Amino acid sequence: MEVKIGVQQAxxxxxxxxxxxxxxxxxVVSQALADGGVLTLTDEKGRRVVVPVEKLAYxxxxxxxxxxxxxxAL
Length: 74
Known about the structure:
By secondary structure, the chain is α+β, with helices and mostly antiparallel strands. It has a single domain, classed as SH3 type barrels. The protein has one helix and five strands; from the N terminus they run ββαβββ. It has one helix at 22-35, and strands spanning 2-7, 14-17, 38-42, 48-52, 56-61. Strands 2-1-5 form a three-stranded antiparallel sheet, with helices on one face. Pfam families: DUF3107. InterPro entries: DUF3107.
């Protein structure tokens, strides 16, 4: 699941590939916003991304992408 995080005053967005589902990521984001602390997500390789919620501009949760192999046309 691709998750894009926009951070205020940052020229680029953070993009991570998470093993969590869309509903689980949305729940983590909602909980972080309710607590007013930090948003913590872990990517597929186990790296953590920690962003203070007061610096969040947006969080975009993408659809799971099916990875294709080869040159076949569909």
